[in-house]
Amino acid sequence: MGWDIGGAHVKAAVINPAGEIIAVYQQPCPLWKGLDQLRSAATRILHEASAWHYRHAITMTGELVDLFKRSGRWR
Predict the structure, then answer these.
(1) CB–CB of 5/38 below 8 Å?
(2) CB of 12 within 8 A of CB of 56?
């Protein structure tokens, strides 16, 4: 199962041993609202795909920068 953690959505796709896509999932995930959004989106996808046992690969294209307070000045 390949995952993409995006800034607005979490996407996942499952391929079979022949390399064919057999399932695709997408859930909204506004990361700027907090990590609970990521947890919720991933949980919904895992629940939807719970009948299968997979190896997982993850990439992240969303930025977490909005979740951290700025302290001091950039130099």
Answers:
(1) yes
(2) no
- The answer to whether residue 65 scores a pLDDT higher than 70 is no
Statement: residue 14 has pLDDT above 60: yes
Cβ distance 28 to 44 under 8 Å? no
Of 65, 5, 69, 1, whose CA–CA distance to 37 is shortest? 5
The CA-atom distances, in angstroms, between 34 and each of 47, 48, 51, 68, 72 are: 21, 22, 29, 10, 22
Q: Residue 37 corresponds to which amino acid?
A: Q
Tell me how crowded residue 12 is: count the other CB atoms within 10 A of its CB: 24
| Helices and strands per DSSP (H, E), number in the chain | 1, 4
pTM, entire model = 0.78
75 vs 47: CA distance, rounded Å? 45
